[in-house]
Design goal:
Blueprint lengths: L1 H11 L1 E4 L5 H16 L15 E4 L2 H4 L4 H4 L2 H11 L4 E10 L27 E6 L10 E3 L12 H6 L3 E2 L7 E5 L4 E3 L9 E9 L16 H6 L2 H7 L14
Antiparallel strand pairs: 1-7, 2-3, 3-9, 4-7, 4-9, 5-6, 5-8
């Protein structure tokens, strides 16, 4: 199972691990995340406070202990470590709410805005998105372009007009992994009443400069003290009270 997952991620640029956590757990997480997104206090941690239909809430590890098991999920970490080494670091854990009527997101690569045009051959990131609700084509499932990581470049306008992204559907409790260089985006939610909620967890190698990642939040010291030791290892580099204490902006 592990070898097949790694091979798929290596070959296609993404892989899906089904039923990584129970559906029962995701039901409680879904309720919690709706509450967090609807709490006005948390709007300062939105990636774009003006976008109501597609919301990203940063700093979720400080707000919800149930996501901790996902961050330190043994099977996911085994796959991640295969690509970026044993000294894996958490970049960010954030929730993503795609509401009915939300349009498609732009197809992109991750964390490459200031990298050279020809992207590194060595993976600089493994990203994951946990399906807290079912992911369907209609409610905005993440789309990927298979094999695109092998181009080692960001998608151009011509690429976007010619490629056919593949929507990754799955049941709640499943998790999608992809390489940072894989072209991907969120799909449009064309339904009238189906909400798509997800937990997005990004991992980086120890050599990656996390200061370039806008919006990422620190782990509060009091939260860090409550975390189990395996999780502390993943987040010890970002323990602070304010973002300004560890990030430039």
């Amino acid at each position: 199972m592990l070898e097949e997952t790694i091979e798929h991620l290596e070959t296609f640029g993404y892989c899906l691990i089904e039923n990584a956590i129970t559906a029962e757990n995701t039901v409680e997480m879904e309720k919690k995340y709706y509450q967090l997104h609807n709490d006005p206090i948390n709007r300062e941690y939105f990636q774009n406070p003006n976008d109501d239909l597609y919301q990203t809430l940063f700093g979720v590890a400080n707000l919800d202990e149930s996501c901790w098991d996902c961050i330190a999920h043994p099977q996911v970490l085994q796959v991640v470590q295969h690509f970026i080494g044993d000294k894996v670091r958490l970049g960010e854990a954030c929730t993503k709410w795609v509401k009915p009527g939300a349009g498609p997101g732009g197809i992109h690569t991750d964390s490459t805005h200031d990298l050279p045009k020809y992207l590194p051959e060595t993976p600089w990131m493994i990203n994951t998105i946990w399906m807290i609700t079912d992911f369907t084509v209609e409610n905005g499932a993440t789309v990927v372009v298979p094999f695109s990581h092998k181009t080692r470049r960001r998608p151009s306008g011509t690429d976007l007009s010619e490629c056919i992204p593949t929507p990754i559907s799955g049941k709640r409790g499943s998790v999608l992994l992809w390489q940072g260089g894989t072209w991907h985006g969120n799909g449009a939610n064309t339904t009238k009443d189906q909400h798509r909620m997800a937990l997005n967890i990004a991992y980086y190698p120890a050599w990656w400069n996390l200061m370039r990642e806008g919006g990422h939040q620190p782990i509060y010291p009091e939260v860090y003290e409550r975390m189990p030791e395996p999780l502390q290892v993943l987040v010890k580099h970002k323990v602070a009270k304010q973002r300004e204490d560890i990030y430039e902006n």
